[in-house]
Amino acid sequence: MKNEGILVATHYQPLHSSPYVMENQEAGTPFLNCTETNPQLCNRATSWSQCLVRLPLYFGMDSISIQRIVSAVNTFTSANGITIIPAIEPYWECIRQLRNENKESFIHTHEVTKNEHWSFMGKYYTTYRVAIDEKGQFLGFVGHVNHDLRVAVCKEARGSGLAIFMVDVLEEEEGVDCFNYKIKADNKRSMAFAAKHGSFPDNKAIVGNEEAIPLVTIAKKRRCRPALIGETIRAHL
Length: 237
What we know:
Blueprint: E1 9-10, H1 19-24, H2 43-49, E2 53-54, H3 63-80, E3 83-86, H4 92-101, H5 114-124, E4 128-132, E5 138-145, E6 148-153, H6 162-174, E7 181-184, H7 188-196, E8 199-201, E9 212-217
Antiparallel strand pairs: 1-2, 3-4, 4-5, 5-6, 7-9, 8-9
């Protein structure tokens, strides 16, 4: 936006981290708990403050200026954006194929048929999202069934931070602090991913050689990670 001569500003600073509060808070006040040492109490305020920007808008702004700003935003997102959208039916087959390609990572390792998948998605598609790139190419999916998380990313998008981004978006949209994980004991890649999200094996729940290990969230912390280009703009202008 700066290259286009358009000034955007940080939308807001969370109240708990504002200079006034930080300078005037007294020991024992709730604000002391909303700091880097315990960020989950104000995690949504902190998260949105890191990704929202304020576009120019003022009385007397002419239509040419408005169109220039809209075009700049659309050009940026269409050229660089990764978008998280609802898992509507045209993407169901993509989800099925990706799930079957990674079937060994799931608790149930059988090949899911189209009929099975359509029946499943017909019930749960509202709790699923898909990630697409600027060309509309499918990159991965995330979803949950009764807060039990399922996520998979295409090979070309692995290592980009997309999986964590998708989970973060789903948590925000569903209004939950974290989802439940249940991961196969030999699935080291998924274990590592869960650890990045603050979830670790629940040793009390592990019995014998149980195939699937339930995980417990020890300390959920919002990460100050580098933003994926275009991730913060989800509205249609």
